[in-house]
Amino acid sequence: ALVALYSAGVRCGAPASEEWRRAADLVRLERTLLECVGRWADWRAQESSCGAETQRRANDDAGIRYALTEALRCLGRFCSPAAAALALHLSSGSHAEVCLGTPDWRDQFAKFVERRRRCHITTPDSPF
């Protein structure tokens, strides 16, 4: 769903599109994406707090890392610098790598997500 949201937003010209902004405000997109990041940023702690006894390996997260990455991509593309800063904090990202007060902060945020979160094997531009 997050990949489709990102794709739709890009096609609509978000965040510059007034229609997109109205729809995003109506569904509280920024808040919802931040809730996604907060929930998925520390999935291992949540799993253990539920008392679930699992035999998962450290990298076996049932796709949660991919969902977290897509939520971060959406936040960086469509939401405010304040929301992006909070998302970085929630996901243990470094504010030093993204200057949120500069005109190109969205590009910096996207590069941060690409470098830190995306899987280099399964992305569309992968040589594999």
Explain what this protein looks like in three dimensions.
Helix content is 59%, strand content 0%. Helix 1 runs parallel beside helix 5 (64-78) and helix 3 runs parallel beside helix 6 (81-90). The two termini are 24 Å apart. It has helices spanning 2-12, 18-26, 29-40, 43-49, 64-78, 81-90, 105-116. The longest helix has 15 residues, at 64-78. By secondary structure, the protein is mainly alpha-helical.
Compose a concise summary of this entry.
This protein has 128 residues and is mainly α.
Q: Number of folding domains?
A: 1
Classification by helices and strands: mainly alpha
Rg over alpha carbons: 15 Å
The overall pLDDT, averaged over residues, is 81
What portion of residues is helical? 55-70%
Number of helices: 7
Ends: how far apart? Answer: 24 Å
- N-to-C series of helices and strands: HHHHHHH
Shape: globular
Number of strands: 0
Could you tell me the strand content as a percent range? under 5%
The low-confidence runs, each spanning 5 or more residues with pLDDT under 50, are none
Biggest pleated sheet = none
List the helices and strands and how they pair.
Layout lengths: L1 H11 L5 H9 L2 H12 L2 H7 L14 H15 L2 H10 L14 H12 L12
Provide key terms for this protein.
128 residues, mainly alpha
